[in-house]
Amino acid sequence: MTAHAPTSPESHGPESHGPESDGPESHGLSLPPVAGKLTAAAPLAPLVWFKSGGAAQWLFEPKDRADLRQFLAALDPSVPVMALGLGSNLIVRDGGVPGVVVRLGKAFAQVDPVDALTLDCGGGASGILVSSTARDAGIAGLEFLRSIPGTVGGFVRMNGGAYGGDVAGILVDCDVVLRDGSAVTLAAEALHYTYRHSTLPKGAIVVGARFRGHPGEAAAIQAEMDRIAAAREASQPLRQKTGGSTFKNPPGEKAWELVDRAGCRGLTLGGAQVSEKHTNFLINTGEATSTEIEALGEEVRRRVKADSGVELEWEIQRVGRV
Question: Which of 149, 201, 261, 263 has its CA 20 to 30 A from that of 130?
Fold first, then answer.
């Protein structure tokens, strides 16, 4: 099946001229000095799961928390800032992302036990690392993180969850660097979690979090992680260029069932396709543009609305200029 391209999707990101630069000042941006790495016109497609989209006007990989704080404190407040994790739940639009994209590297990827039931996790640590460290420490209840293809910063912001667990159920508190460079520690209650949503302010970057589980045996924890991994492999198109779950599950419904009932399984638009294996996943079959991927998602939303009256909400973030 092939969809006709709908009108251009609305841009939800800030507007800017295209990314190009030869020095520390570009398109009116005067950037502070950094101890880490600052790259102009950095391609983002290699850094996201869909393998599509434009460049970041600037990509900043801070050396440590102090470097990040100092940079943001000195950066013009009008410059947009966006955090990038593993790029699993993200469409980077083809026009690129204006301003500064912050990517947390190895300095932010540590995971250490605090006590018998609590882990201190860097914002750049993966769900697999967190769950594996919990297993080794005999901490149960964090196994579901094995199935979340992202970093601590991302799933704290979005209340990531799967297989019966979510971040709201394990988070003690988190360390956040705000857009002005100030640092705060927020208790879980301060994030006002709902389904796949928190009230973290725009431009805030989660640099650390404490997760608490309950006592468990390493063998039983590993068995549950293996069960989750096998279920995920069997049901999701993990070996294709995808972005994870596309739409939120509406109350009392499953997004994939609504998409399937609307006849969208296998629907294509250019190089983008609704997965045959799991209809709440969009895939890049080869050389799809981000415009095609997003437009296909909007066509699916239109068809589901017409079929069931349900208006699906995007779970995947869409950023940058169309």
Answer: 201
The string over 126-143, giving b where at least 16 C-beta atoms fall within 10 Å of a residue's C-beta and e elsewhere, is bbebbbbbbbebbbbbbb
Cα gap 208→218, rounded to integer Å: 25
Residue 26 pLDDT > 90: no
Instruction: Respond yes or no: is residue 245 known to be catalytic.
Output: yes
Give the mean model confidence (pLDDT) for residues 278-287: 97
Q: Note the pLDDT of residue 1.
A: 52
295, two tokens: 């437009």
CA 120/CA 105 separation, integer angstroms: 16
Q: What is the pLDDT of residues 233-257, one digit of tens each?
A: 999 998 899 999 999 999 999 999 9
Q: Which domain holds residue 228?
A: 108-234
Cβ burial, residue 77 (10 Å; 0-12/13-18/19+)? exposed
Is 25 catalytic? The answer is no
- pLDDT at residue 90, rounded to an integer: 96
- Give the length of the chain: 322
C-alpha triplet 274, 161, 108: angle, nearest 5°: 105
Residue 287 appears among annotated catalytic residues: no
Token pair recorded at residue 236: 């999701």
Instruction: Report residue 193 CA to chain centroid gap.
Output: 16
- Per the structure, how many domains does the chain have? 3
Q: Is residue 10 part of a domain?
A: no
Choose the catalytic residue: 245, 290, 299, 318: 245
Q: Which residue is catalytic, options 196, 210, 212, 321?
A: 196
